[in-house]
Write a structure and sequence with these properties.
Length: about 280
């Protein structure tokens, strides 16, 4: 075969190039400090300084220069010890905290608030209504997204709650009568009834009984795999993150010190901090 025929042949190859799907969300150069800051904050914090507090000015460098992508149907886990910057990062992705620098793009445009939903550890923080029925809490989000037919709204709310494992006879009960794990399911139903482009899970299983945790992890795993959305989950619980996430970002003093495939990072951590985190479950 001549070289031009070879070229032709490779262009017409029956095998498509193995390329990862385009990311849903791309984060680049994301930084957020608390406090006024000075010209030395970055050099006086981080790995070498072993702190996130600038000794010159006292500002906290909560997240510095974070960069990662999250693909469709991908669950990215964010781990790190207390104070490492996980919630700050999540709040920036939720757009309720404005980063000092950096960009968050979603499919070619700056991420907008309507495309993001956060499931909080506490359902009150998530803006749910404790006195309202579970189904009304879900229906309320549908109304907010423009649905108008009462029957459609009720039908969708009921379907989603049932899919998340809430028995039908409880759908009309007030949210405050539900256990923590059940309230998490209502939050999830509310989030997923109109799937966002980016789903954020903040410590979704922390504080729940072990059996409730296991059930909820099952549900989370099922729904996040089926969604086209990108998901970011923050948790102290490395075992939970391992179950949910396909990739992991490790934060230490606000810096991403390691990121990669979840099993690889947790089984063969390269960075000394990740090694410590995995060995001691230091969170
Ligand atoms: N509103 C704020 N004002 C001042 N400092 C803040 C504020 N929010 C967070 N910080 C500081 O930023 C750093 C990162 O905090 P963040 O809450 O993001 O950590 P985290 O990894 O979520 O910790 P945890 O696991 O304990 O929830 C910490 O040093 C924290 O004290
Ligand atoms: Mg936190
Ligand atoms: Zn400083």
């Amino acid at each position: 075969m001549t070289s031009s025929a070879l070229e032709q042949d490779s262009r017409c190859s029956r095998w498509p190039a193995l390329q990862p799907p385009a990311p849903v969300v791309s984060v680049r150069g994301l930084s957020r400090r608390f406090g006024r800051g000075c010209a030395h904050c970055v050099e006086l914090t981080g790995e070498a300084a072993d702190t996130n507090v600038c000794r010159r000015c006292g500002a906290v460098v909560a997240v510095h220069d974070a960069a990662f992508d999250v693909g469709p149907r991908e669950v990215l886990g964010v781990v790190g010890e207390s104070g490492s910057g996980k919630t700050t990062l999540l709040r920036c992705l939720h757009l309720d905290l404005v980063p000092d620098t950096g960009t968050i793009w979603a499919e070619g445009a700056p991420l907008d608030r309507a495309s993001v939903v956060m499931v909080h550890q506490n359902s009150l923080a998530a803006g749910l209504y404790p006195e309202l029925a579970a189904e009304s809490n879900v229906a309320e989000r549908l109304l907010a997204t423009g649905a108008r037919s009462f029957d459609d709204i009720r039908g969708l709310a009921t379907e989603m709650l049932a899919e998340l494992g809430l028995r039908r006879e409880r759908h009309a009960d007030a949210l405050q009568t539900f256990s923590g794990g059940m309230q998490q399911r209502v939050q999830l139903a509310r989030a997923l009834v109109d799937p966002p482009r980016l789903l954020l899970l903040d410590e979704p299983t922390t504080g729940l009984d072990p059996t409730v945790q296991a059930d909820l992890l099952d549900v989370l795993q099922r729904v996040t795999q089926r969604l086209d959305s990108a998901t970011v989950v923050v948790s102290h619980d490395l075992a939970a993150v391992r179950i949910l996430a396909s990739r992991i970002v490790v934060l230490h003093h606000g810096r991403i010190v390691e990121q990669g495939v979840a099993d690889q990072v947790l089984e063969d951590p390269q960075h000394p901090y990740t090694q410590l985190l995995v060995e001691s479950r230091l969170t």
